[in-house]
Amino acid sequence: MTITNSRLSSRSPAERFAFFVLAAYLWAGVLLAGYFYEAVFLPANALLCLAVALFLRNGSLSRSISRTRAWIVAVLLLLALYWLSVFYAADVEAAVVEASRLSGLLPVLLLFSSLPEEAAAKFIRQWAWAGSFLVLWGWALHLFRNGRLESTFGYANALAALLAVGCWIAVAAYREHHGKIYLALAAVQAIGLIQTGSRAVIPLFVIGSLAMLFMGRSSAVNRRRPVWLSLAAAAVPVAAAAVLIASDNIRQRFSELGWNAPEFVLRRMYWADGWSLFSGHWLFGLGAGGWETAHPNRYFVRFVHQFYLQTALDVGIVGLLVLGLLIVWPLVRYAKSGIRKPLPLLAVLLLLVHAAFDLDLIFPLCSALLFVLLDWTGRPAGHDSSAAPASPPLRGFRTAAICACLAATIGFGWLAAGYGMKSAAMRLAASDPAEAIHWMRQSARLMPWTHSAHFQLAKLYQSEALRTGSAGYKLMALEEMDSALRALPHYSVYVHWSDTLKAMDIKAK
């Protein structure tokens, strides 16, 4: 990949707008846990859809996606499968949430595909700065858990994947721009990566760094700067190895790595149960989010910790094949191009391999990084969307697309309001139970299909019953539990909680 300096001022207002929206999405996601939570990614989706509507209003669509039209259609097909799964899902609320989680990809890809080569490269470089910020922010606020750096993400392995890619981006930027600041960014992210203690990402990163060194040997940059290229590409794995040797905590984690390591034993159990469920629902899956309520009740885990199995459980073999098409298509274009772009290829491979062992692609910011890199991998060298001929759009297509974006904005805004009220209620539960109950009721009214709001209401009423000794609160808690159970009658968590409520002895105070 060639990352070149450019100024956006010479570009069209639509292209500058697309770049600004993407940069804002990236930096907001860095601060907001990678958009993992519903109360965060739903309003982000609403704003992204509104941004695309404004972008389409300028008539830039036909030129910007002419190169990726078939790929965008495949993304739409995957999203359609997720939304259709709502109608047969084991858990309707979870299906709506997971379909919404994935839906943010489409506006991100539409906007990224509109960027010319220089602006797209500038956006890619933003990830190196974002990764360094995550590390520095984590150091400043001591955002560690069990000795592992998590920063704002709250999950070390997802942070590790982002830092590994960000480090490679920084090395490539230094290699091609000779800006020493990028070496500093690479060093910061390499140290942060080691501090995550990720036993999967770190070995993949070291292997990929060595591969980058050998794959880049024939590039023009390497012929001009062979020493700097070698040092820049090799410094990161050497530094990583040095930190591994020096850190007792990290060395202990790696010494526990093996087939029978406790963490791996648990994941093998999840995967075995997941494949068992998939065998009975192989064509269209359980519906998005179905694993959470359908897995065996001897443990509780929201995700199966295997992205491809998660997709198969959500939307079956049909969805898995569409996902495979989305991944293979750009890689085939890359292979046919005959141009060596080691950075995007290695970054994509790292994310895809690690997704087979973990859930980092559940974070919308991480999945956005993967698909942006896939688009970049399949982009021909020298491609400039602003120079591409604009194919005439179908009559009324632009108007229909704008209306669809506005409808999506309203829909995601509605969901954001509902989950925002729920999130606010949960924050108020300890300090102001009455206000928490009010907002949780509003959330349940706004989303009639929800069961989690009724469950949370039952917990709030139970707490009030225990605090006040009022049997009335117990009755209200039982009513809310009945509402939750009507949505998920066999969900073991709800069944157990309902039984506990019924057996609860309320003593008047």
Give me some keywords for this one.
509 residues, Serine Threonine Protein Phosphatase 5, Tetratricopeptide repeat, 2 domains, 2 strands, globular, disordered N terminus
Task: Please give a structural write-up.
The chain is an all-alpha fold and 509 residues long. It folds into two domains: 11-384, no CATH class; 397-503, Alpha Horseshoe (Serine Threonine Protein Phosphatase 5, Tetratricopeptide repeat). 72% of the residues lie in helices and 1% in strands. The chain contains 23 helices and two strands. The protein has helices spanning 13-31, 38-57, 61-64, 69-84, 92-103, 105-113, 117-141, 156-177, 181-196, 201-215, 220-224, 226-246, 248-255, 262-280, 291-294, 307-337, 342-355, 364-377, 397-428, 433-446, 452-468, 471-487, 492-503, and strands at 144-145, 148-149. It has a two-stranded antiparallel sheet. Strand 1 (144-145) and strand 2 form a beta hairpin. Helix 2 (38-57) packs across helix 5 and helix 21 runs antiparallel to helix 22 (471-487). The protein starts with 12 loop residues before the first helix and ends in a 6-residue tail after the last helix. Residues 1-6 and 220-228 have low confidence and may be disordered.
Using only CA atoms, what is the Rg? 24 Å
Counting structural domains, the number is: 2
What share of the residues lie within helices? over 70%
Overall mean pLDDT score? 85
Order of helices and strands: HHHHHHHEEHHHHHHHHHHHHHHHH
- Uncertain runs are 1-6, 220-228
Structural class: mainly alpha
How many helices does DSSP assign?
A: 23
**Going across the major beta sheet, what is the strand order?**
1-2
The major beta sheet can be summarized as: 2 strands, antiparallel
- Proportion in β-strands: under 5%
N-to-C span = 71 Å
Coarse morphology: globular
Strand segment count: 2
Domain O-antigen ligase-related: 185-323
InterPro entries: O-antigen_ligase-rel_domated (IPR007016), WaaL-like (IPR051533)
Pfam family, one: Wzy_C
Subcellular location: Membrane
